[in-house]
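Q: How would the structure tokens look for this protein?
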Amino acid sequence: MSDATPALRRDRRRSRDRGRHRGEASPDFAVTFARLGELAYTGAQVSASVRVVGRTAEDDRSLLAVDDTVAMPTASIGKVLLLIEAAARIGEGRVPGLGVLDRTVADAAADSGIWRYLQASSLPTADLAVLVGALSDNLATNVLLREIGLDAVRTRAEALGLRRTALLDRVRDRRGPDDAPQLSVGSTAELAGLFAALTRGEAVDRLTSHRVLDWLSLGADLSMTASAFGLDPLAHTGTDHGLRLSNKTGTDDGLRAEAGVLTGPRGRLSYAIAVRFEDRSLGDRLRVLSAMRTLGEELLEYVH
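A: Here is the predicted structure in token form.
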């Protein structure tokens, strides 16, 4: 006699199917692979990529790849593309870094950032980029994007070889039926590759790449993967215990994502991870953050 009804057996099969996550991992990231599998088993959509940053793109070596070619919502990570175009234009002299931009009522956006709390209604272009890199400032993002143009950002992304990664829209407090459904999308493979290119000075040119990494090194959000690195969230622009980090996070309802590059005494790794999940309880959210921290712990173990 069977120990389960046909319906129960079907439920078990569906649970196993839902828990599958395609990919591969080196032994150095076996725990992360398992933790992401546990999230997938609960119904979350997971994607991750880790690569050793080589001297050339051909020298890069994959250490972790989990559904890394799938285009996922990436929230504020798409702002990196805006920063790349801004840095390129400043370097070319097409946008003066000290040129002052004004905020308008139409640029207003809530949530991340501090400019909306400041009295100054105008700031230099380079300062807006600092606010975006450091605090993912939504108001600064919209003003900078209004100046540069979404089409220019898309064209730059395509020139960088990005096919599944794009900034789709300005930041909006509410998205209507005529708006893009997400702020940005991306594949973790492309995002890890982009940070590797930035590290090598290949994203547009060396000056542009280094300027973007400098802005991102100010990032104060170390709540996800980077929580494992032991860095001061408000002061880690230099090297600390042999570690150097530039990263960008993305947060939305039921979404946590991060991409960056971590350099240590034993090497440098670029990484990207995105998790979509049902944010029904604090426990659901904490399980995702715990898995992302596990990735951080294995990144740290590899480079330090």
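The chain has one domain: 6-303.

Confidence is low (pLDDT under 50) at residues 1-19.

Upvote if useful.
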